Structure formats: structure tokens, C-alpha cells
Amino acid sequence: MKYVLVLLLLIAFTSQAEPYYPILPKTEADRLLHRLRRSAPDTNRVKLLVQFSNDLTSRYYYLQKPDTIARCIRQAQALSKSLHYAAGQIDADYALGYLLRKDPGGREVVLQALARSQQRHDRRREAIGWYLLSETYEKSMALHPQRIQCFEQAIRLFGDVHDPVQEARVLRELADAYLMQGKPARAKEVLLRSLALYKAAGYSKQHSSLDLLAATNDALGNYKEALQYALAAVASAKRSQDTLMLCTYYMRVGAVYQQFDQRDKIIQYYRLAMRSAEANHYNDTALGLASTIARVLLAENRPQEALALILEKSKAYPPQDDFSRLKVDQGLVSCYLRTKQYALATTYCQHIEAYLKSKDVTSDYRVLHGAYLTVGACCLATKQYPKARAYLLKSLATGQVVLTRSSMAHACLLLYKVDSAQGNLSSAIAYYKRYKAINDSIFSEMNSKQMAALQVQYDTEKREQSIALLTKQTQMQQMTIRQRELQRNAVLGGAILLVLVLGLGYNRYRLKQRSTRLLEQKQHALEAQQAEIHRKNEALEQVLGEKDLLLEERQELLVEKDWMLKEIHHRVKNNLQVVSSLLATQSRHLLDPQAVAAIRESQNRVQIMALLHQKLYQADHIGRVNMADYSREIVTYLVESFDRQRSVHTQLDLAPIELETTLATPLGLIINEAVTNALKHAFPPPRRGTLTVSLARLAPQQYQLTITDDGVGLPSGFDLQRSRSLGMVIIKGLSHQLDGQLLVTAADGVRISLQFDTSKKPVPAEAV
């Protein structure tokens, strides 16, 4: 039977109850935390602490912050006690009971707070206590009577205090309990009461009740109604932007579409449900949905795709508890059976058997029904007929409790195959007849419901036609009465209208005369304004003409200024060349080597500044220097000046950077001093080496100059701050002028690094 195994997995998701304290949206939760931090130690702070802890408890399985919640509750309890705030103490104890509702001590905490509510005749808090008491019981068949009793007490009390929203919410939980008991008709009746209360109160978040109503109609075989309610639940959740449980509502739609055999819709909505679960980090739910989609793919004869999906999701979201592992194992057993990998199917089937035999096995007949059926199918495929028969009989027994007729029919079909294989023909025929009877009852029930729906539709249309006929007759009578009234009023209205027309005509005549006079006055004023505008336009044209002449003169002056600046830079460069030549001439007449060296260094410095001015008058943009070309010429000039082309290899890594003259001048002198120092001291003959100069951009306005040699390094005990050599003094002074960070290190030679920022104005040379 198609999709029967899919339905078995969905049994575990009959309903997903919304928490009693709904999870707040992130903005509201942040606002609540902000108010809590700013609150004074009064009763309002107690309320905020309780609200905050309840919100965290509703997120407990996703946030995993029980210690934080317990701290908030303890603060609320202590503050309520110090303020003698009895209601706050009850609320704080309820919050603790809500947190510990699955622990042994949680029920006792709720019972004590419930007793205090009854002593204070606080019916609202007593109603909350009865509901929270129901939360302390497991959702098992054995404990349903206790839970139902709690729900009925809470419903009665919420009705007494006229709180329809809370009354409707507890009615929804009561309906869920009835559905789990196998009483879908009773559940539907209660759910319709819940929806009526929601609508009367104007409460828009009805999706949880709509979803459960879809599940109830599905159980009753009212599949069209089930689909309508399931789609309405999705629309309601989207409309109110309450998407935490949207995966459940998508899943419900997919489950109902199975009854209509619309496979594309089934897979579409299950995938939407899985994506929603993953988005909200409901990993166990996403894993269960992967198993569900895999089973639908199996029905589509796509076993490899189904197996790949369930393996992928079980790896991404490893099962965290026995129930999640059971869902994955059931899906894998089905996939491996379809792909005829019986050894692997048997392995995972043994996992399911171990769970069914463990002491922690669930008492939920819906889960047991699906597990028994899966094991029975596997044992049948592997020809373990006695074991298959035992598990399939258990599946039938649990199926009769939860009223899953489709899967019961499938169990009967499998038992027919088991008995046929064992030669029990009479038993096989009996099970086959039972299988056909259940199938026929489902089919006939669907047909009868469809016929009843058509009859209702026919009666409704007939009644609407009668109503339409009566309405038309009434309208004709009313039209006759209105026509007589119109005839009577027409004469009176005509006379009044004639008087009004005459009065209006006279009034229009007077208004026209007044309008003519006003128009003539405005015309004269407009002509005067136009004359004034014409005069101002002529004056503006004259001003614009003068402006164009001034702009042309300004452009000519700018061109002349550029030529003059270039000429100045050219002459300065020539003068510096003359000074350099004079220094060279003077050095030839000196006998002292130190004096000759000093003159030579001064000559180099002058030459460096001459190069700068040469760059300036050759550049297209006066006032900016291409540092890559300038630095390259400095290094080339110095190497040739010291005649070290053969013994010193230069490596230049220069970014294409343009700098203002005020930055280029000190930077060029720093390069001169550092390179000169390296050529003089780093490579004493016959030593050879490499001199590296790099200029890099670190950020839009931050640069780094680095000069490195692999020479002999600095003398021992060298201290940059105490050095009195002229070269180092110049480098430090120019670095300070650039407001840069200078760093000199000695490791396999000397490395001089300068970081500077062009956004900072250079320090005036006089201040250095």
C-alpha cells in the first residue's frame, strides 16, 4: 500500500504543542532583558525575572541554559520573599516547576504553589497551576486520565476569570490528549470550541489549533477538511510571523497530500518542513523529516536517492536520543530492504529490536506500532517468518488502539505473506480478507463522505436559489415604493431646484464680474513682474559674461604660474648642480680624507635635492613627485658615485606612489643617508652583498620605506638614540619631520624601516 510506511513515521508528529509561555521574538526578548537590567528591586522586577525565566525555559532544549534560568528564578523567589509579595512567590515557584517539569521534584513544586493559589482564592493562578501540573505527567496512554483531569480544571477556571485565549489554549491541549487516546471525534469537537474562543477574542495566532484540527480530520478520514485546515495553519503562522513551529505545519500539509496521491506536493512540503526545522536548529525534527522524505522517495522508486538523503542528514545531525535513533533506524531499514541490502537492513533492524526490549522503551502506542511494523517487514524479507509474525501481530494490536487503519491494512497484508510462505493458507486467506475489508472500508468511507459533501453542496445551492428569489421579490417591492416616493418628491424638488438655479445664475453673474476685475489687476501685476524679470535677466547675462572673462584670465594665469614654477625648479636644479660642482672642485684640493669624505657626502645630498627639482620641472603635475622613479635614480646615482656597481647588487621594490614635495624631500634625503651608510660601511672590500630598497603602501595613506643590506651589520653596543653620527642624526631628524616610526635592527646586516602617514602634516624643518 502506497506511503503506509510514511504515515508510520508521521504518527510521532501528530501534534507539536506550543509551549504555555510562547517563545518571544528576538526583538521582544532583547527589550525584556534591557528592562530587566534597568529595573529597580520591586515587584515589577519580580515579574520581569519570572517572564524572562519562562521564556528561557520555553527555549530550554535549544539554548541549554538551565543554570541561567535557575539563577533568575532564585532571584525572583528571594526578592518576592523580601518584599512579602505572595503572588510573586507563587509565580516564581510556577517558573521553577515549569523548568523542572520533567524531573521528579517538579511536580511537588507545582503542587505546593497550586495549594497556595487556592488558599489565596487566586483563580487565575490556580488555573495556571493545573495546566503546569499536566506538564509534569508523561504523554503516555497510562497517564492520560490525570492529564485530562488537569486540563478540565484549568479550562473551568480560565472560563471563570473570563480569559478566552488561555481557555482556548488549554482546550487545544485537551484535544491533543483525546487524539492520543484514539478519540478523534471528541478531539474535533473540543478543537472547534477552541477556535471559536480564539475568534471571539480576536486572537490571530490560531495555527497550532488549526494544525491539530487538520490531524484530527486526517484521523477521521476527512481529508479535504484536513488539507484546508493544514494550509490555513501554514498561512496563519506566516501571517503572524510565528515561524518556530512552521516545520510542523508544512509536515502536516505533506502528510495530508498523501491521501490524494499528489507526490510532487508531498515531497515539496516535506522539504519545506525540513528546511524550516534546520533554520530553527530543530535537528531531531530535521532528521525525522529526512527519514519521511526518504520513505516517499522509496514509494517513487528512487531508493538510492532516499538512502543518500537519510545518510547525509544522520551524519549532519547525529541522533541525540533513543526516539531519534529509532526514526533513523526505521528509515535505513526501509531503504536497505528496497535496495536488497538485507545484511545492512538486518543490522539496523536489530537496533530497533534492542530498543523495543529495553527498559526505556516508550509507552506511546503510535511509536510502537510503527517500530513493530518495520521489524516485521524486515523479518519477512529475510525469511524469519516466526519472528515476523510475532512483530506484525504486535503492530496490529497497537494499531487498533491508535486507529491507524492504513498501516493496519499493510500489517494484514504482510501477515498474509508470512502465512502464505509458511503454508498457513487458512490464516493467510483470513488476513487477506481483513486487508481487503479495511481497504474497502477506507474507500467506501471516502466515497460516502464525498457523496455527503455533494448532497450538502446541492442542498446549499438550492437553499441559496430560494433565498435569491425571495430577495429579488423584496427588492421589486422596495423599488415600486421608491418610485412613488421619487415621483412625489420630484415636483417639490423641481420647484426648489428652479429657485436654486435662478439664485445660482445671479450669483455666478456677480462672481464673474468680480473675477474679471481680479484678472485685470493680476494681468497688470504680471506685466510689471515680467518687465522686472527681463531687466534682471539682462543684468544676469552681463554678470555671466564678465565671469567667463575672469575664468579665462584665471586659466591663463594658472598656465603662466605652472611655467614659472617649472622655470624656478629648473634654475634651482642648475644652481644645485653648480654647488655640487663647486664641492667636487674643492674636494680635489683637500688632502684630509675625512674632509674629502664629508665634502663628498654633502655633494651627494645636494645632488639628491637637485634630482628632486629636476623631477618637479619635468613632471606633468607641479608639486608631486613619482617616488618610484625618484628613489631608483637616487640609488643608481649613489652606487655609481661610490663605484660599487660590481660589488653591490641592488634590489628595488618600489610601489608607484606620488607624494607632495614636502614629503618627497625628506624621504629622498633619508634614502640617500641610508644607502650612503650601507655603501660606505656594510661591504668593506672585497666583500660583496645585496642592498634592498622597498617602498610599499600599507593603507590608503600609510606607507613603509625599508632599506636592508646583508653586510657586516652595526658595531657592537650601537644605540640608535645615543648615536651622534651625522647620517643617523639626519635620518632621525627627517623621520621626526615626517612624524614617522623609525626602526633600525641588526640581524644578518642592517634593516632600516620607516612607517609614515601622508594624512599627517609634516613637522616644519625648523622644529626638528
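Above is the first protein from milestone M3; the second protein from the same milestone is given next.
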Amino acid sequence: MSLSLRYAARSHVGLIRDGNEDSGYASSRLLVIADGMGGQAAGEIASAVAVQTLAELDSPHTTGLSGDPVRDLDDRVKLANTKIRAIIAQQPELEGMGTTCTALFLAGGSHFAFAHIGDSRAYRLRGGVLEQISTDHTWVQRLIDEGQITPDEAERHPQRSLLMRALGTTAEVDLDLTVLDLQAGDRYLLCSDGLSGFVPFNTLASTLTGYGDPHHAAETLIQHALRGGGADNITCIVADAFEQAPQGSRPPSQAETQYLELPVVVGAAAENQANLPSYSESTGQPGANPADPNATGMMNAGAILAAGENQSPAQPDAPVLPAPSVTGDTAEMEAVAGDEPEARRRKRWVKPAIVGGTCVVLLAAAAAGGYYYTQQQYYVGADGNGHVAIYQGVDYSLAGIKLSHVYTSAMVTVAGLPTSEQAKVDDSITATSLTDAKTIVSTLSVMESECAAIAATPTLTASSSPTATASPSASSTPHSTGTSTAKATDKASTTAAGKATASASAHSSSSATTSASPTAAPTPSVSPSSSVSSGNTVLGQLTADCPGSTG
């Protein structure tokens, strides 16, 4: 009896992201998940290149395979890294893009060759027990391994998304590569962190055990991730191993009902085929092998995946299903894993000699990979010249290397902000994206403008006497501005809410008469009750918190 896979693949852009940087591929003998990183640096290209390159393992037209599934999978992952590096060399603006890659390749019908790099995950359900068979290549996982934090603490760690290994970030690949035994009845889940990061382990286990059909299991997992927040792209593959009767043992009436080997492609690899760059000669590029005919182009991978767009699934020789929609198409196919084409014996390229090199080299490569990932993170802080700035990277130094730099400085002075916001800017405000960072800066700009308006109000209505009473109509800050600030401030997590009760109590009893500061005579301070309507609590709190205010 030969083992075969029954599978379903599903990808969803999520509830927040504008595009899908995940890619997935599933067939009777090959499962691949790739989670692209890079954002503006085209992570979707990196993940699509990885999936397309590994998909060539399924093509009968791919030459140079050794016949050893472990070696061939290893070579393909490293070739994907070479191609990504070649794209970056040709288009320097894409520096920083990369991808995770987790793959299972059926070896001899009873084993899987398993390759893994990054933080996408692979799980195995056997005998009703779910276990994670991959190890996250992240900073927090290293801290867990060293006993510095617990798994629960890792879930809340500010650097929990910091990758230490990925394809495309370095010329050499530090890959986890092993062989796993395969049994009939096993169920495998491959997923991006958009699923594992938002669905608890117990929910994964109950879903995989509760749904016998891979299609329903994959769909339910996606829905769980969306209900959990859906803040990232979500991609998963659910595959079941089962025994398939040999072709010769079937009754004549069933001889023609063979399962068709129809791979399924989801996510960026399905959506961005037309946008993938072509490859020029890559001789001399990092990791390139001039003797490798595939090092200079997508070769068969693009044709394999593109074929699905123009061929009907009814055609017996169609290598790929029509590309599924990124918003919800799923597929479940069955195929015989034992009917593999005869392997080509010509060696395509020699594995790099430094695989298995010294720990120093591996750690350096991992650190470099992690650095590239940090450059896709953003936060808001002070630029050293008294202005608010958006920083690219994380507010952290590793081995003496600062992992951030000023992305852009804003025309917002730190000194002009409410004192509570000054403290937050000095400590840095973490943003979920560049857009979020810009929103935070916009909110701070509104606060600075309001503080400036509040400080200027007494000069318009008060006498030159140190004791001044401002007319309620003199307030130039409309209530609509206060409402807008409250909403924007809530989104950016920059409110001074912690002071709300005490401030409101103190200001409600404060006098409208204050002592003039000898150093700020042109713009004397004023109590909130004399400049802001008592109904506008947010602006009342802001007034007391502005530079130069009393209360």
C-alpha cells in the first residue's frame, strides 16, 4: 500500500493588511508555506519565488534532481534563496525583502523530508495528540531556549516578531532539515504566523480533531484567526495521509478512476505571477551557480503555476489548478504519492561547502537576517534635535548595533506637546506599521497645535495685568477639534487618560486667576476653566497638561 495525501489549502489577506504576502502550495507529495516579509520591499515577491521554486519538485520537466528527496528539497530551498538575492541585487530598492519557508516533501511513501526556516509552523496530529514539529527561528524563541523567558511571556514580548533566520536575507541558508516518519491517519497543518499567532494551541487541536474533512478544517481555522483579530495574512494547509490501493489491485471497472495530481496554489504565488520579475544572468551574485540552468530564471516554476490559469482541471495533463482567489478559494485533492516520475540522475549543483560551518558564522548570518527584519518595523520618538520623528527599526541594540534609524522627522516639537506625551515620545511609541506611525505623528501634531492655541488665548482677551479673566468666547479651539483628538489619540494610544480623574477634580475648583510668570509675560498661563468649555473634558485635561499651564 502506498501513502497519499488528501489536502486543502486556504489563504486570506486578513482584516488589516492591504495585500497578501503569504504563499502556499499543496500537492499529493509536497506541502509548502512561505510568509513574505518586507512590506514596501515586496515580501509577496519573495514568498512567491520560494513557492514557485519548490513547486518545480512536482514537475516532470525539472532536470537535475538527484532522486534523494532530502537533498532535492535542500537544494530547492537554497535555490529559492539564490533567486531572491539575485532580485535584490538587480533591484536594490527591494533590499530587506525575504520570506519564511516550511516544506514537507514525501520521501518513498513512508517518510517526509522536512525543511524549515523562519516562524511559519508545522504541526502533526497523530493518535489524537497535536504537536508542533517546527521550531520558530525568532528572538523570543532563543530567549525561551536560554531560559530567560517563559512561553507565556514570549506571547507578550515586544520583539516577538523579530526573525533570526529567513530566506533572502543572507547569501547562505541556515536551514532546519530532517526526515520525519509518516503514518496513515496522520494529519499535518502548515501555517503562517497569521494563524498560529491568533489561534490558541488548544483551539488548533480541537479544530483538527473535530473536522474529518481537510477542507472544513482549513476553513474553520481561517475563521478562528479572523475572529482572533486577523491582523496579519492568514494561510494554512491541512493534509491527511492515507493508504491508497495500488493501481494493479483495482477492479477493472475502477481502473480509470485514478486520483489526479492537481496541485493547489494560494496567496501571493497565485495572485502575482504576472508581477514577478524576470532574472538576468546571475553569475557572481551571492549564492549563484553559473552552471545551474535555473539560477538565471524562474524556468519551469512560472510555467507550472501559470499553466493553471489557462488549462481546465478536466485536462488529465494539467499540472496546476486555476489559481485560487486570495479571498477565499480552497481546494481539496487526492493523488497517488507512489506514482513518482523517475528521478533525473544528473547533479544540478553542489551544496555549498559551508553548510554545517562554525557556530560563529551561523550566528552572524542569523543576526544579519534578524536585522533586515527589524527594518520593517516602525516607532515614534525624539530625533535628538527636539522634533518628533518616525524611526525605522526597533528601539534596541544588538551586539553594539543599533537596530533603528530616523525614517523622517516631523515639524512637531517635543517641547510643544503635553508633558505626558513628551514622556511617551522620549520613551518611544511603538507603531504597528508605517501608516500607524504617521497616524501617531498626526495626533501629536494636533496636540501641539491645541497647546499653542491655548497658550495664545490670554493674549487675545486678557488685560496686561497678571490677573486675567478670559471670556468663554475667546477660546479658539472648536469642540470638533477636541473630539477628533480624542479619537485619534485613542487609536495611537497616546492619551493622558491616567490623569483624567485627578485633573478634572483639580481644575474644576481652580480659580481663573493665576500669577503671571516673570519669564513669560507676553503669554501668561491660564486655567482651563477660563479658556475651555467645561463640557469638553478632553481639552480641559489637555490644557492642564500643556507646557506652561497651571492647575
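Note on the second protein: The chain has 16 helices and 17 strands.
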